[in-house]
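One thing: can you check what follows?
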Amino acid sequence: MQMKWKWMSLLSLLSVAIILISCNKNDEDGPALQNETYQLVNLSSGSSQSAGTFRILEQSNGNAAVEINLAQAFRINGARFNAVIVTYDESTDSELVYANLGEINGGSARVLINPVLQLSTNQAISYADLTGRTGYTLKLLNGANVQASGQIQ
């Protein structure tokens, strides 16, 4: 009888230890993931019209992702928009493509690009680097026409 109690006590102690180990809470919570939202505008009518939004999202690895949501009034079924992030180069008096985000379906015009790759290096751009840039613009191009654009500020 005493042997039975020893085994039951040992089994109970082992069960409690397993439960405690499996319920161990990780107290090292990482920093909250961040995001920045920017407005897209359309200037084709001569005045600034809201054309949607884009968000730069911080991923768990620190890289940036971009979510684009074009407003319903600026969506075109069957169209393909080319999305790019550009900067103005004063020395050449032209825009340079910093990141090519690819083609977007003009009918839904809602897309998530992850990761955002720098065009010249084909390397992922960090969230801090992309949101820290000034003078950079996200553009949605319908051929040579700018369907919508928004400044990263």
